[in-house]
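Encode chain A's predicted structure.
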Amino acid sequence: MNRYCDRATTELLDPDHVQSMLREMGLRQAGEQGLEFTKKTIAIYPTLNWDSSKIVRICVAVITNDPATALTASEYEAGQMREYATAASHAYVVERRALVYL
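Encoded structure for chain A:
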């Protein structure tokens, strides 16, 4: 189950706080590129386990017009993201979201 939480502040997320949060939840630590990405986030989406209150994933969303902003593991994946970001319909033409999972 996903819970959507818009950020109520314009302050940047502190990388140390992000790492501490991930560590406390038992999630993989974010790399330098992921921490840089989280500084621009507009929303945080935790994914909860149906059987417990354990958070199994954290997603942060950044509004961008550049599909290359999304973090990827391979050029193939980057190509798929570019294709999806440019071909998918959007409620607002100028607003496109790239998501990264930490």
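Strands lie at 5-6, 43-48, 55-63, 97-101.
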